[in-house]
Amino acid sequence: MMNKRIYLCEDSVESIFTGVYNAWEDRYPKEFVELSVNSYESNYELFSEYINVVTDFDKANRVAKTLELKFGNEVYTSIYQAALSNAKDKAQAVFKTINIGLKSKRPRQLMENLQDKHICRVFELSRAVFNERSHLLGFVRFKELNSQVLCSVIEPKNNVVMLIAPHFADRLPGEKWMIYDKGRNIAVIHEKGEQWGVIKSEKLNFEMLKQMSDSEKLFEAWWKGFCESISIKERKNIKLQKQNLPLRFQENMVEFH
Fold first, then answer.
1. HSE-up of 231 (CA within 13 Å, CB side)?
2. Contact in structure between 59 and 68 (CB atoms under 8 Å)
3. I need a labelling partner for 179 at 20 to 30 A (CA). Which of 28, 84, 209, 228 fits?
4. Domain that holds residue 164
């Protein structure tokens, strides 16, 4: 019996796609191949070979183009979104689903085969990521800083900051804005009239994020006053509020401060 070969990826789409490319390139029997975003530092398996994946953007881009060409945009989007999930088993689910799709006679209908546990898992993860993205489009709050940059801080479960960026780039094309994912230390940056990009937050001046402009302070006071004035104490329903607006979103919304 052959040893299992486990590719250890970083927690990013690019690293997972690089792992997929390396597994194809190595031509090791796919039934003995596993992809993981876990470190395995404390639970190495016997008779297994561990390979650290070095993220290669060229390889990742080749995989992405191949998947979109063979599977179509809808299936590719599901796989891409699943790779943005915070689930520990996402890399393996993505890898197995891709392999099934490459052997399928109907790869563009791949996500209809929910009887397969790997495809079903990709479907579940993709839906969870999409739902969180949809929530954040309504719950993101920007604050104007002294630097005239509009800044929003979010703490999503999944890595959705790249998914919400196009929405705000389309609606705020003439503004300088930033959406900062506090938990992952990454931020989307947008300059006036330019394309948005992603940076590591180690390059950010965190003190700057606390320095609100005078007009922002005034508008925040008005907004809080408005929210208080329209609320009806006798009809307050905290349970329903939590259902419609999870607590984890409220921390970064000015009306709850």
1. 13
2. no
3. 228
4. 140-256
Residue 20: which of 61, 73, 81, 74 has the closest Cα?
61
> Which is nearest to 177 in space by CA: 185, 186, 250, 187?
187
Are 149 and 97 in a shared domain? no
Query: Strand 186-190 vs strand 33-36: parallel, antiparallel, or unpaired?
Result: unpaired
Indicate whether 121 and 147 sit together in one domain: no
Report how many domains make up the chain: 2
> Is residue 19 a contact partner of residue 9, using CB atoms and an 8 Å limit?
yes
pLDDT on residue 193: 86
Q: Please give the Cα distance from 199 to 180 (Å, whole number).
A: 10
Which helix (H) or strand (E) element contains residue 156? none
Give the model's pLDDT for residue 46.
Answer: 67
pLDDT at 203: 62
Tokens encoding 205: 């001046």
Among 81, 104, 132, the domain-final residue is 132
> How confident is the model at residue 213, as a pLDDT?
76
200 and 80 both lie in a single domain: no
- Domain match, 13 and 95 both: yes
Instruction: Judge if 73 and 180 occupy the same domain.
Output: no
Question: Looking at the structure, do residues 110 and 147 belong to the same domain, yes or no?
Answer: no
**End-of-domain residue from the set 132, 154, 184:** 132
Per-residue confidence (pLDDT) for residue 44, from 0 to 100: 66
CA distance 198 to 186: 7
Q: Which residues of the chain have pLDDT under 50?
A: none
Tell me what pLDDT residue 127 has.
97
Of 107, 232, 84, 219, the closest CA to residue 156 belongs to 84
- Strand locations in the chain (E): 4-8, 33-36, 48-52, 143-144, 150-154, 177-181, 186-190, 196-200
